[in-house]
Write a structure and sequence with these properties.
Helix content: 10-25%
Number of helices: 5
Strand content: 35-45%
Radius of gyration: 52 Å
Number of strands: 11
Shape: elongated
Largest sheet: 11 strands, antiparallel
Order of helices and strands: HHHEEEHEEEEEEEEH
């Protein structure tokens, strides 16, 4: 009996729920809410090729970090190489200078205004030094060297080639093929020839002349001078007077010295004193030409056929005149 009552109650409850569901208004579907927009991830740009950076252990030595003022090992090595090269060149230059008869200890100054002016003025290398001196050598093996001199009054200033007869002519022709080996100055008894170097020098110098007289008489004259003072035939001090020279000290011209072949005449001026040597032997000194030795180096020749083998000029340059030219 009780079971029937319980079953009846459950049935009624179920039926009531069905009826309520049928009477209730239908539920409208809830619209779907839009999802919030997610930010679009930025697309990565294509990678640009980057220059390859050297690794620390591959960096060049000169690019390595170094304290200011300190050289890298590579720079020190290069510096040592350059210093060694400079020393070798300096040694070679001294050896070459000594071989050519130059003073190897002179410190040359080729970049000075004086050196550049000398290069324009002269054909030969001036070898201008820091002490203001030049060292010029004329062997006349190149014909261009003659252009450094003014010549006037000579019957001829020529080379040896093509003159004379027989063996002497052939010898001169052979010399001529090798170029100008010596300068020939010729002047007769009715005139005089004057040969002047272009450069003006001061009264401190050493001048050396090597010549050979092929023809001369007792009326011949040869004066080796600078400025207004010099020496006649290597034995008598003279001073320029007008167009000729007169003796300033007693002495006798040494003609005999010129009869045996080539002779060497040397003039050296220091502290107002002029000293003359003939073939290495001192023939005298004088102070009477003090103040008269500035100027141009020259040769005065009369009634003579003369061969000039070599002329050396070691002197202090007159810069005031040089830089005006």
């Amino acid at each position: 009996m009780r079971a029937n009552a319980l079953l009846s109650g459950l049935l009624i409850t179920a039926l009531s729920g069905v009826a309520w569901a049928q009477d209730a208004p239908p539920q409208e579907p809830t619209p779907e809410q839009p999802k919030p927009e997610q930010p679009t991830p930025e697309q990565p740009k294509p990678e640009q090729p980057q220059p390859e950076q050297p690794k620390p252990d591959e960096a060049k030595p000169d690019e390595a970090k170094k304290p200011a003022g300190e050289l890298t090992p590579a720079e020190r090595k290069q510096q040592r190489r350059e210093e060694a090269k400079a020393k070798r060149q300096e040694k070679q230059a001294r050896q070459q200078a000594k071989k050519q008869g130059f003073d190897p200890e002179r410190q040359l100054a080729p970049d000075t205004p004086e050196a550049q002016a000398l290069e324009k003025l002269l054909i030969v290398d001036s070898r201008y030094a820091k002490d203001g001196t030049v060292e010029l050598v004329y062997t006349f093996r190149e014909s261009e060297q003659v252009a450094d001199f003014e010549r006037r009054g000579f019957d001829s200033t020529d080379t040896l080639a093509g003159r004379g007869r027989g063996r002497r002519a052939r010898r001169r022709a052979d010399l001529g093929k090798k170029g100008l080996t010596r300068l020939e100055l010729s002047v007769g008894s009715n005139g005089a020839g004057l040969m002047l170097h272009k450069l003006s020098i001061q009264d401190e110098f050493t001048l050396t002349l090597r010549v050979q007289a092929l023809r001369m008489t007792k009326r011949s004259d040869l004066v080796f001078f600078c400025g207004k003072g010099g020496v006649r035939l290597g034995s008598v001090f003279v001073k320029r007077s007008g167009s000729s020279f007169r003796a300033v000290a007693k002495g006798t011209p040494n003609f005999e010295a010129f009869e045996g072949g080539a002779v060497t005449i040397q003039l050296e001026a220091r502290d107002g004193v002029l000293e003359a040597k003939l073939n290495g032997e001192v023939i005298g000194q004088t102070k009477k030409l003090n103040g008269k030795l500035d100027g141009q180096v020259g040769l005065y020749v009369r009634n003579m056929l003369l061969h000039v083998h070599e002329l050396r000029i070691k002197a202090r340059v007159d810069s005031s005149k040089l830089l005006k030219e």
